[in-house]
Amino acid sequence: xxxxxxxxxxxxxxxxxxxxxxxxxxxxxxxxxxxxxxxxxxxxxxxxxxxxxxxxxxxxxxxxxxxxxxxxxxxxxxxxxxxxxxxxxxxxxxxxxxxxxxxxxxxxxxxxxxxxxxxxxxxxxxxxxxxxxxxxxxxxxxxxxxxxxxxxxxxxxxxxxxxxxxxxxxxxxxxxxxxxxxxxxxxxxxxxxxxxxxxxxxxxxxxxxxxxxxxxxxxxxxxxxxxxxxxxxxxxxxxxxx
Length: 242
Fold this sequence. Notes:
Layout: H1 2-11, E1 33-38, E2 41-46, H2 63-67, H3 69-73, E3 82-86, H4 92-109, E4 137-143, H5 147-151, H6 155-162, E5 166-170, H7 172-179, H8 182-185, E6 202-204, H9 215-230
């Protein structure tokens, strides 16, 4: 409770607030609220679709930007050396996590380059990434890629691998056996038997990134909504318009 109250207090924008974390520095925080009239009633739309994760090969927006807020707020000293997750090869959460790790590598390098480029090819044809490897890693478990994606990667798979994602492919049976059940979809602990990714701190993010790591962004969203409603822009007492 005390930690949550402190987080709520720090989330409310004020002149004394610390600088925004790198991942959301160029985003419109708080995200704007637009007023619309629908069938004579005022409807307020929270435009989180305008949030962006800079350096994400096209931009990650909306709820995924909110979920990544907590990772972006971590200092380089607190950021895990390895982030591990799982899901489909075109997952929005996958490319969002890839962007979060790549942005942290960019900050740690002190330049626009995210990590050290080991090879000009971003994808090796077997589902492995060859580029943008840096101090921080992102490991992603997925089912064995279909032939068309191995031959011509596209969409979120191409974006994530270009950002340095290390794909770990499994057979469909092995994947289902490993990730079916509560451990694969929620909670802070990885499934039993999943190998350790290596030395250093590792953070397990379940499929879809709906976990404790997403709390800071969710809390900030709640604080923004409350602040808007309590402020001059809010209209909690308005009735329908004629």
